[in-house]
Amino acid sequence: MSKIYLAGYFRKNLGDDLFVKTIANRYPTSSITILVEPKFTEPYVDMPNVKVVKYVFYRRLLNKLLSIIGVTDFIERKLISRNDLIVEIGGSIFQQIAKEGITSRRLNYLKSNKPIFIIGSNFGPYTTDDYYKTYKEYFSKVNSVVFRDEESFSLFREILVVDVAPDVVLGLPITKSNNEIVQHKKKLAVVSIINIVDKVVATNKNSIQNSYDRKIKELILQLIKRNYTIVLFGFSEAENDTVAANRIFSSIPSHVRNNVLLKSHDNINDSLDILQKADIMFSSRFHAMILGWRLQIPQYVFSYSQKTNNVIRDLFPVQANIDVRQIADIDAEFLIDNVNTMDKKTLENVSKSAEIQFKFVDQFFKNNS
After folding, report:
1. Is the Cβ–Cβ distance between 282 and 190 less than 8 Å?
2. What angle do CA 53, 55, 57 make, to 5 degrees?
3. What one-character DSSP code corresponds to residue 183?
4. Same-domain pairing of 131 and 220
5. Domain range spanning residue 164?
6. Same domain, yes or no, for 146 and 232?
7. What pLDDT shows up at residue 98?
8. What confidence tens digit (pLDDT) does each residue in 272-315 have?
9. Is 30 helix (H, G, I), strand (E, B) or coil?
C-alpha cells in the first residue's frame, strides 16, 4: 500500500475538503495522512483511507520548543518520513505575504528527498520578482506542478514538469443519487457568502463590504418575492463566512426571515446535498462557482479575486459575473434574471481535462507498482 502525505488547507473549507475527497476517491488503496487541528476534523471521518493526525496541544508545543533550536515543523517532518510521497493540493497556496520567499515547510519537503507533487493551484498574487524567481527554482526541483489557470501556467511553462488543467473539483464524480431531482414546495436559492474584509485586498474594503451586504440583502428580498427559500451558505467558518451570513441575516426584516436558512459547512455530503437541491445560485466563493458548473446550476458569480476572473476566462467566458467592487451598480432583479451556467458539452470536456491534474501522480504509481 502506497502512503501519501497530503499537505493543504484543512480548516473546514468546502472547496479544500473536496480536494481531499477527490484524492481519497482516486487512490482508494493508498493510505493518505493529513495533519489537522482537532476542531476541523469532521469532514474527513467518512473517508476510510484518510488518516487524520490531530494537531493537538502537545504537538503544537513540541513544534514550538524545537523551533527555538532551529528545528522547524518537526511534527510534519516526522509524518513525511513515514510516507512515500508528498502531494500538496490547494488553490491559492502561492500568494506572496510581505517579503516571504519559500516557506520553511516547503524547504523541509525538499530536504526529505521524497517525491513532491503539487496539484490544483494558481500562482500569486505576488509583488516582487524575487518571489517569482524563488518559486521558479522551487518548481524546477519538485516532481510536478499542475496549475488550474493559464496565467499561472504561462509564468512557468518552460519547466518540463509544469502543466495546467481545470480545477480538481470539476472532475468530482457525481453519483446517480446526487443527480436525482428533489421535489420541494418552494424553489431553492443558494447564496454563498464571504466576509469581504477577509478576502478583498483594497484600502476601501469596509466600504465594499457594506455595499456587498446591502446588495445581498436586496437580492434576498427579491428572491423571497419570487417564492424562493434562500440558503445563506458559508463555505468556510474559519474565514468568517458565517459571521458575514449572520450579519446579513440580522439585517433582513424579521417578518420574512423564516424564508432564509443559515448553513455552515461541516460535512461534505450534507453540503453537496444542499447544493444539488438548488434551483439557482449566487456564488461568492470560488468553489461555489466551480460546483455551480459541475452540478449544472444556473448562477451569477460575485468575483472577489483575479483567480476567479482567470478561470472564467479560461473555461467559460460567458459566465454571468460581476466584481464585488462594482456590486452596488447592479440591480438585484437583473442578477436573478441573468443567471447561467456551463453548457453540458463544455462541462464534459472540462471534466475530462481535469483528470490531467493527476497525471504525474498516476504515472508515479504506475512506475512504482
Report:
1. yes
2. 140
3. P
4. no
5. 3-171+351-367
6. no
7. 81
8. 999 999 999 999 999 999 999 999 999 999 999 999 999 999 99
9. coil
